[in-house]
Write a structure and sequence with these properties.
Helix content: 55-70%
Strand content: 5-15%
Number of domains: 1
Strand order of the largest sheet: 1-2
Distance between the termini: 23 Å
Radius of gyration: 18 Å
């Protein structure tokens, strides 16, 4: 483990500046993605409140089929998943239910997001 932690937002001017400075200073550091550090505590409570209030005992928010609210929540969860946010089991189950109910209407755009994220990750490890 490094002696110092550098919380950065990937691909920003500040990120580049900070990374150059710590390297130039010869400091040993571990680079952490600030989005993840900030997202977890800020998102956990409202996400659980959404589940408890809107989904308590139901598969979808509005009815027996996904509504606009379900599509919006599923899209939000899709992007949280993209940044490796630790999902509770209910969120995975909910996303699966929405995708199953909507079929290609959801799967095709979601696949674009997932494919883009996979591509970006592959470039960062190349």
């Amino acid at each position: 483990m490094a002696a110092n932690a550098l919380n950065v937002y990937k691909m920003s001017v500040n990120n580049l500046t900070a990374r150059v400075l710590v390297r130039a200073a010869g400091l040993e550091f571990e680079e952490l993605d600030a989005r993840l550090a900030l997202a977890r505590p800020v998102i956990a409570e409202p996400l659980d409140v959404s589940r408890a209030f809107f989904l308590d005992g139901k598969t979808f928010i509005g009815a027996a089929a996904p509504s606009i609210a379900d599509i919006r929540l599923a899209a939000t969860l899709e992007f949280l998943h993209a940044i490796d946010y630790e999902f509770p089991a209910w969120a995975r189950d909910y996303m699966t239910a929405v995708e199953t109910a909507l079929g290609d209407a959801y799967s095709e755009p979601a696949a674009d997001v997932r494919g883009y994220i996979d591509y970006v990750r592959s470039q960062s490890t190349a």
